[in-house]
Amino acid sequence: MFNFTRREQLGALVLAGLLVAGLLLRFLLLPRSGGGVIIEPAAERGAQQETSREIVVHVTGAVKEPGIYRLAEGARVFAAIEAAGGAAADADIEALNLAAPLFDGQQVRVPRPEEGENGTARGDGRVNINTAAASELEKLPGIGPVRAAAIVEYRNRNGLFRSLEDLTGVTGIGPKTLESLREFITLY
Predict the structure, then answer these.
(1) Quick one: 93 and 149 in the same domain?
(2) Which of 16, 31, 79, 97 has a CA positioned 20 to 30 A from the CA of residue 113?
């Protein structure tokens, strides 16, 4: 079918030999690259940059090593407790929402069973507006079922209160109501 001259056959053999030698050189002698280029979506890059920022939280109460801890932004309550050496043997860990996100400057108080709901001492009587249920908020002066539900809804929609003044963002609570509540409420 193909009629090659002796010279053409020799040229084809030389080319084939060079091709095999080139492939051997490429795959056996030259180092392999570290892989292909990895392109990560912008959303993932943003998430990695966010987690590289730190927040500072104060962990207190029934933990092994209470103190100030630096955590990655977006950390949860359970991470703060772990940073403090874990919960003490007498901790009432069920009183906390361990999955709640933390914010910079927050205090995480791990209660003991002899303390009241949400880590407030029974003798203290102050209500933690960041963790209290609507039924507990209703016990506050001037707060009925409608305002208590509004506080819980605001907290669920906007996250934890960072200051007592944030309470004025709740429908029906103005500066006067806030002043009348100050001695009965806490953020921690």
Answers:
(1) no
(2) 79
Does this model's pTM top 0.90? My answer is no
Q: How far apart are CA 84 and CA 98, in angstroms?
A: 14
Q: Which amino acid is at 31?
A: P
If one counts every other C-beta atom within 10 angstroms of the C-beta of residue 11, the result is 12
Residue 5 counted as domain residue: no
Are 107 and 58 in contact by the 8 Å Cβ rule? The answer is yes
Claim to verify: residue 125 and residue 183 sit in the same structural domain:
yes
pLDDT value at residue 118: 47
Beta bridge mates, 69: 57
Q: What is the H or E stretch that residue 76 is in? A: none
* 82/71 Cα distance (integer angstroms): 11
Cα–Cα distance measured from residue 40 to residue 18, given in angstroms and rounded to the nearest whole number: 39
Q: How many helices (H) and strands (E) does the chain have?
A: 6, 5
Kindly state whether residue 129 falls inside one of the protein's structural domains. yes
139 plus 97 within the same structural domain = no
Divide the 188 residues of the chain into consecutive groups of 10 and give the mean pLDDT of each group: 84 91 78 55 55 84 91 92 91 85 87 61 70 87 90 88 91 91 86
Which residues fall within 8 angstroms of residue 83, CB to CB, at 6 or more apart?
A: 59, 69, 71
Do 98 and 160 lie in a common domain?
no
